[in-house]
Amino acid sequence: MKIAILGAGAFGTALGGILADNGYDIDYYDPKIEKENFSSVIEGAKYILLVSPSEAVPHLLPHIPKSVPLIIATKGLFGNKQFSAFKDYMAVSGPGFADDIKQGKKTYFTITDERLLELFKADYIEFDKTTDVNGVLMCGALKNIYAIQAGYLGLKRDTLAWKEYIVNAAGEMKSILALNSAEASTVDLYCGISDLELTCGYPSRNYEYGDLLRQDINYKPQKTVEGLSALKRVKRGDINVPDDAFIMKDLMERL
User: Fold this and answer.
1) Is the same domain home to 118 and 18?
2) What whole-number percentage of the chain has pLDDT above 70?
3) pTM of the full predicted structure?
4) What average pLDDT does range 157-168 have in this prediction?
5) Using CB atoms within 10 A of its CB, is residue 50 exposed (0-12), middle (13-18) or buried (19+)?
6) Three-state DSSP class for 45?
7) Same domain? 148 vs 118
8) Residue 248 near residue 145 (C-beta atoms within 8 A)
């Protein structure tokens, strides 16, 4: 069975490795470098796995067949509204750096469809489940924003200040989800609190960006920082932010 993967970065190839190990035929499309072979990649695919940078998603969606089941693994999307035209879509998300997954280290995924259990099964992967696709996607975007702030504040993993920050950030995430038609309890899953904890420290690119920004407020990243892209969309009004979301509000004013 063929699975087309839209996004050939570190995370896309890590997920592709799991699928390949499970016997699936994998074909990649990299929106950053490939312009000609999109049709051939998706031709005959029984599933399409979306793992591209979030900024590329609006350009890809019009060309993705709406009848083929879509698996959303891109982190940085605020909800599921843009997928309303698709007949069948689901999400997979959770803590795990690409290199760790490739090395078979313990990995945790939140899934929104039972079919994903079979597709991504591995003895080093543990799953939890929800039907809240909207909340899973929002968690994947929000945790990157909070990781930038953790880096900017210079918080060190597992210190008391870091632990207090995680509690406060998770509380804000719950408030934001509830205000945007998602389930606050989704933050308690792997895609929420566990991914937040992982991302709020090195080697997270979002945390690193915040840390470098603390040292030089004019620092410009050379690579994609998903949290920065997500924050721009928050400032644009793509989601509603509660008045008491002080961490988010502070970062919005800073950047």
Assistant:
1) yes
2) 99
3) 0.94
4) 98
5) buried
6) coil
7) no
8) yes
Residue ranges with strand state E in the chain = 2-6, 25-29, 47-50, 70-72, 89-93, 107-111, 125-129
Q: Domain check: are 107 and 27 in the same one?
A: yes
Tokens of 107: 């990995």
Instruction: With a cut of 80, say whether residue 101 has pLDDT above it.
Output: yes
What pLDDT sits at residue 164?
A: 98
8 Å CB contact between 112 and 131: yes
Q: What is residue 49's DSSP assignment? A: E
How many residues make up the chain in this entry? 255
Which one of 129, 157, 192 terminates a domain? Answer: 129
Dmax of the chain from CA atoms? 52
pLDDT, tens only, 200-222 = 999 999 999 999 999 998 999 98
Domain that holds residue 179: 138-254
Residue range 169-195: average pLDDT?
Answer: 97
What six digits make up the tokens of 64? Answer: 């993705």
Rounded to 10 degrees, the C-alpha dihedral 51/139/187/133 comes to: -60
